[in-house]
From TrEMBL, chains A, B:
Residues 359-415 form the External alternative NADH-ubiquinone oxidoreductase-like C-terminal domain. InterPro entries: FAD/NAD-bd_sf (IPR036188), FAD/NAD-binding_dom (IPR023753), NDH-2 (IPR045024), NDH2-like_C (IPR054585). Keywords: FAD, Flavoprotein, Membrane, NAD, Oxidoreductase, Transit peptide, Transmembrane, Transmembrane helix. Belongs to the NADH dehydrogenase family. It comes from Rhizosphaericola mali. Pfam families: NDH2_C (PF22366), Pyr_redox_2 (PF07992). It is an enzyme of class 1 (oxidoreductase). It catalyses: a quinone + NADH + H(+) = a quinol + NAD(+). The keyword NAD applies. This is NADH:ubiquinone reductase (non-electrogenic). It comes from the Bacteria. Its EC number is 1.6.5.9.
Length: 447, 447
């Protein structure tokens, strides 16, 4: 008899209104923090038991940080919050008419629903790309990429032919937004400072880092000065930036670009786009471009008691006719706004409109190198920008322990250039690559 | 065309004698450290790219430490060592007549061979046990167990029936050696200090921790005073110690003991025994009880130029008629001895016999609770023993960075009782458990 029968959501009945939050990213986290436990029962659903600090995922992928430095268990985060219930599960469906959320462990009635489940990688229907490329949306994604990189370096040590070594070592990064730029910079620093010491038998001049961007600029959306500086810095660091081009196909071995170029690579990193992950059951008229259209109160337009936050929401304003940018700040501000407002809504008090406060944009390129756009669109770069970047990222990490871990790691890495997290703990095995798969199996280093 | 063709071991030819070391555990690590690079070419093979500090695996499993605090990349460890070559692979066969080592990436001639590939879990032929229990020999093992524990706690929150909650939460640890005792103690502290705060909806009085030991004493081999103290401390901490009994069968749901008792449990931890992992091709007459018989120079008796170290070697002495204990110190001392001696052997100089220096034994039970046997078999326990235990373990960690990480974690955990590594990053899915598997898949928290 299975041990796991008799499962229910096990949320106690309550006379308070129940708020169900879907997703423990920035939006859901700040909403839950700002909800008043004495007025509401708060239920948080997530498919992972931790919050991921996505802006630093690229450092986990490039072995600069250990995974748990940027992830915090959600239960621990809220252990002092009263009237709060976390459940690890995936939401399957929403019935907005009956106000029910359906999950793999049963259904639950809500009075208010906060949808903050974010986005997933968008491969625009390219199945080969989805199968063979490395996305960068989650901690398992980042660990898979790290494992792939380390295994590739090991394999390059077994290959004498420089052309083959080059094909093995070359990396293509698709998408020149912050993730692409930051990953390219981190890989370039690994190549220069860390890898040659670790792999004396590999010639890292054979490791080419290609960054492919569809538009005219890297970091599109930032001030032109920042875009240009990112391009100049990366180029100086030996990253081969290819503008105005896309990767039109990738078969696991060769990336073909729309400019006709082909690049042999076993590692293609996909940071080219995301799409909203709309849960089934919501009304089609609420959905636009895979996102939920919200009004100035972050309420899904036309719905009863449903709010949407962060990447899954589209809030059109005069300044942002296509919606707010898909970064942490809008999610944090929307979450805080909705969390604080529900009391007023419950009491039918008048509401102030949500106003997005642009705190500026930051992207780091390398040690002491970053670009910063201030809210007034003034831009600057270099060491000061990098220090601001580091300060802001440490500040927004969720727990004090995460902050300590990241800070110590950064100081260490800054002083030694030795990141030290280069362990292949769970080898990544690409399904199409029979030879690689066979080597891994023969070696049995998967345990 | 596959990227990974044309693979060879890529070890340069040399006019120096070549030493091949199999295994980067304590024995192989200390042998490589002590070999003179100016006199030998040193080649290290391991199936993992890191050294594992096995004595602290149980803290990784119980979420006290992150994995990379106790693992160090082997390439980084030896990056300053000249004439040293690391290769990530599994050795398939040895031909002692031709002095060849065969691997998945090609074969290599050796002048001296140091076999230090250690032991694996021994299930004594019980296939069900091997399939359903959680061993504790490697970092992936420890992470699987951690993931299983955290998932079980999550699931217990979904179950209202106290009997079912008890079945889910109960843990059986088989084997009362240091690993079993230390794991039981750590789980008991988690239950008391950490879990109730994280899982307010779970009644942890339903979590029973059973420690099953075949003999009369826990920590067999230590002084009787230490054995008794471990028993008394664990019992006081609420661990249900079952002496003079074995688990005779386990089907993934119920453990049946030789004393007739049955315990429903989804988590059975196997720390009951190991067996040597003898590589094919070695002469049968060299092998005894799955280990390689070595003489007082750690040389495999009857072989030409083959040495064996640590858990895979059996060195019988008057004091240890069944061989040295299977812990870190014999491996470290044998590795150091062989590494230093190869020069003398090469020059046909006379050798001193290897002498094992017993530095005593330590085991920790909980915060401020440990037992310590001094080399003279005097034993004591309590806070002082615990402080010595902590000091010794920090000292023998391989890298300075590992030491810093473990030290900071311990200070943190000591002060806060909050271990913080309770992330389910790669969910463990038990193959037999259709319901659990289905829940995990539905939830898609595997990504």
């Amino acid at each position: 008899m299975p041990l796991f029968s008799g499962i229910s959501l096990n949320i106690p009945d309550t006379d308070k209104p129940r708020v169900v939050i879907i997703g423990g990213g920035f939006g859901g986290l700040y909403a839950a923090h700002n909800l008043d436990s004495s007025k509401f029962q708060i239920v948080l659903f997530d498919k992972r038991n931790y919050h991921t600090f996505q802006p630093l995922l690229y450092q986990v992928a490039t072995a600069g940080l250990q995974a748990d430095a940027i992830a915090g268990p959600l239960r621990t985060t809220f252990k002092k919050k009263k009237n709060f219930f976390f459940r690890l599960l995936r939401v399957q469906k929403i019935d907005p008419d009956e106000k029910l959320v359906f999950t793999s462990s049963g259904s639950l009635h809500y009075d208010y629903l906060i949808i903050a489940n974010g986005c997933r990688s968008n491969f625009y229907g390219d199945e080969m790309m989805e199968k063979f490329s490395f996305p960068m949306k989650s901690i398992p994604d980042a660990l898979n990429l790290r494992s792939q990189l380390m295994q590739t370096f090991e394999m390059a040590g077994l290959v004498k032919d420089p052309a083959k070594q080059r094909d093995l070592l070359s990396i293509v990064i698709v998408g020149g937004g912050p993730t692409g730029v930051e990953t390219a910079g981190a890989l370039s620093e690994l190549r220069k400072h860390v890898l040659p010491k670790d792999y004396p038998d590999v010639d890292f001049s054979n490791m080419h880092i290609h960054l492919v961007q569809s538009g005219n600029f890297l970091l599109a959306g930032m001030a032109e000065k920042s875009c240009k500086r990112a391009y100049a810095d990366l180029t100086k660091m030996g990253v081969e930036v290819i503008l105005n081009s896309k990767v039109s196909s990738y078969d696991g071995y060769t990336a073909t670009l729309t400019n006709g170029q082909t690049i042999a690579t076993s590692t293609l990193i996909w940071s080219a786009g995301v799409k909203g992950d709309v849960i089934p059951g919501l009304k089609p008229e609420w959905i636009d471009h895979n996102k939920l259209v919200v009004d100035n109160h972050c309420k899904v337009v036309g719905s009863d008691g449903i709010f949407a936050l962060g990447d899954i929401a589209i809030l059109r304003t005069d300044k942002y006719p296509n919606g707010l940018p898909g970064v942490a700040q809008p999610a944090i501000q929307m979450g805080t706004y909705v969390g604080k407002n529900l009391c007023k809504i419950q009491n039918n008090e008048p509401l102030k409109d949500f106003k997005y406060f642009d705190k500026g944009s930051l992207a780091t390129i390398g040690k002491g190198k970053a670009v910063c756009d201030l809210p007034n669109k003034k831009a600057f770069g270099g060491l000061l920008a990098w220090m601001i970047w580091a300060f802001v990222h440490i500040t927004f990490l969720v727990s004090f322990k995460n902050r300590v871990k990241v800070f110590i790691n950064w100081v260490w890495n800054y002083l030694t250039y030795d990141t030290g997290n280069r362990l292949i703990i769970r080898p990544y095995i690409r399904t199409n690559d029979r030879v690689a798969e066979k080597i891994v199996k023969d070696n049995e280093y998967s345990s």
